[in-house]
Fold this protein.
Amino acid sequence: MRLFVAAPLPLDVRERLAGLCAGLPRARWVEPHNMHITLRFIGEVDGDAAEDADAALAQVRHQAFDLGLAGIGHFGSGRRVRSVWAGVEGAEELVHLRQKVESALVRAGHDPEHRKFHPHVTLARLKSTPAARLGDYAAAHNGFAVAPFRLERFTLFQSRRGNERVHYEALAEYPLAG
Ligand code: ATP
Ligand code: MG
């Protein structure tokens, strides 16, 4: 099974983000129910490893905290822009939480993640979208912001693929202390 750990987003935040999901040719938009902030991509594991990951994540202790969204960005450049995302504002606590998630998973036997953490909400995957169109899109939405909301839990998701569509199923939720 293909797993990842993420911060789920409140419905009203996903509704705001859905308002950004138009106006780019050749974009594959993320469906609002799938929107999230990835904390740690785990990848393909068997059932035993998934249980170990769950047990390790259940040990993570962290306070609930506030998180906002602001701005639009992208990964890749020029003709190879791969994705467009909304940025996270005030991510310090999210970085702390991610570090705890990372240590827990390494203790559970996973390889350490060496890639830098770039907190974001993916809005679309792109394939050869003209750079000028991306520029117009970014300019139109650059003032995008969502007022801080409280993150009260994080989630272990299973990523499943059915005919063309990806679906994320919450396997477990871990509360952050109030
Ligand atoms: P698809 O791969 O079909 O475009 P997807 O990327 O949404 O769909 P997954 O590849 O299962 O589905 O990814 C689940 C989540 O983990 C997404 O937020 C994705 O951006 C993130 N992710 C996937 N691969 C990695 C990786 N190698 N490193 C960091 N995050 C990743
Ligand atoms: Mg992917």
